[in-house]
Amino acid sequence: MKSWHTRAFFATLLAAALAPLGASAATSTIAATAVAPTAPTTFQLKQLTPEAALLAAQAALAACRKAGYQVAVAVVDRAGVTQVLLRDRLAGPHTVEVAPRKAWTAASLKIPTTAFANETQAGKPLSGLRALPQFMAVGGGLPIEGGGNLFGGIGVSGAPGGDADEACAAAGVRAISDELEF
Known about the structure:
By secondary structure, the chain is an alpha+beta fold. 48% of the residues lie in helices and 15% in strands. It is built from six helices and four strands; from the N terminus they run H-H-H-E-E-H-H-E-E-H. The longest helix has 20 residues, at 162-181.
């Protein structure tokens, strides 16, 4: 049955069901159903290409190497799915888990993980979010945004402190930012 046939059929059934309430209730309900605008059934998203994600990760890794840090870098898409994960030779084994979680947190909340860490400290209204398994409340994760779109997040783990991790992540975002601004 075509959708307009289905709507007409259900409108008739609805009118019959509302008839005991009076003609005006049935008529206004049917009229509202008939003229209600329909929302689009699809939408478009802009995604990072694997090449752009790799370029961002490589730039972050290079920035950390230049500063003398051995790190892991992860880039996730807007849904938090890992696109790239690079681990330098001497980066700690924990960095492979932490970097994607930082990237996921930044993409999920659309804020740097440093801001998340500050806003979720004990006693603050959002402190309960820290208990959720995927969130990482430590610096080193940044959202990847451009041209009014969220593309994903980048996370760095292994430098001495969240600020150093975040500086490397920022280098990764800068490496692709011109391409994202359109």
